[in-house]
Specification:
Blueprint (H helix, E strand, L loop, with lengths): L1 H24 L4 E5 L5 H11 L5 E5 L7 H11 L5 E4 L13 H5 L4 E4 L4 H11 L1 H11 L2 E5 L1 H4 L2 E6 L7 E4 L4 E6 L8 H10 L6 E4 L3 E6 L2 E7 L6 E7 L2 E7 L1 E4 L2
Length: about 260
């Protein structure tokens, strides 16, 4: 009788472990990176990615120091959309904030990161533990999105205007293990510098995105490119036979 009991117990434990593993594998980790600023078209697409009615979407304006005008622009972009917009500021006080960053962010369906100073944003996130919270959100299946600093942060690294004088290399969170270049065609210095950094192995090969285009990644893999108009594109930049290779990625959907 004891042997039968132990066999049943072993079976239950194994089945439970398999169920938990299957549950984990069902979570789709999604990042939507676009090259420039947020707009209604991008926000509609983020909403669609959540696959939820009236999703909770939180904006992180850390890169602009929680600038009030940027926050107002976010709420304007969300007007008349079937979503619930939130903002997570980092310049806060314990007296006014009754929930932790983790409690707030992990209750969302999507998190959108704004543009600005990437270097400062990464430093603040690390000091506040937000980098760890975003990893938890990613693993939980919460949609992560953003443009400019808000797209660069998800990759290994890229170039940023966060320091005086010249564009410099900045490290990201590394959720996507490639480099990244936002503002690919709108800022003349971006493309040649990106080419040079990849050619000289300062940056790994990676994805470049025009301001009005975006890329969807699922479980760290490229899935598709979208754009707000017919002129905007995304690219994969690498080195082949000692020369920079720029591969145009097909846009599968023009956002309305």
């Amino acid at each position: 009788m004891r042997k039968i009991y132990l066999a049943i117990l072993l079976f239950v434990c194994c089945f439970s472990g398999m169920a938990q593993q299957a549950s984990k594998s069902e979570v789709t980790r999604t990042i939507f990176a676009y090259g420039g600023n947020f707009n209604k078209q991008f926000m509609r697409y983020v909403m669609a990615l959540t696959k939820k009615e009236n999703p909770r979407i939180c904006f992180l304006p850390t890169a602009t120091g929680d600038n009030a005008n940027v926050i107002l622009a976010w709420y304007n972009a969300c007007e008349e959309l079937n979503m619930r917009p939130y903002v997570q500021r980092v310049y806060v006080a314990s007296y006014t904030e009754k929930k932790t960053f983790e409690e707030n962010l992990l209750s969302m369906d999507a998190i959108v990161v704004g543009g600005g100073n990437t270097l400062n944003m990464m430093a603040i996130w690390k000091a506040q533990g937000i980098d760890t919270v975003l990893r938890k959100a990613y693993n939980k299946g919460i949609i992560l999105a953003g443009g400019s600093a808000g797209s660069l942060c998800w990759f290994q690294g890229g170039t940023t205007d966060s320091r005086p004088k010249d564009l410099s290399i900045v490290q990201g969170l590394g959720f996507i293990q490639t480099s990244h270049c936002p503002h690919y065609h709108s800022e003349p210095l971006r493309k040649p510098l990106y080419f040079e950094n990849i050619l000289k192995s300062r940056l790994s090969p990676g994805y470049a995105i025009d301001d009005l285009a975006g890329i969807v990644f699922e479980n760290e893999k490229y899935i598709k490119s979208v754009a707000c108009d017919e002129k905007s594109n995304t690219y994969y930049v690498s080195v082949i036979d000692g020369k920079v290779d720029e591969k145009l990625l097909p846009v599968v959907k023009v956002l309305k």
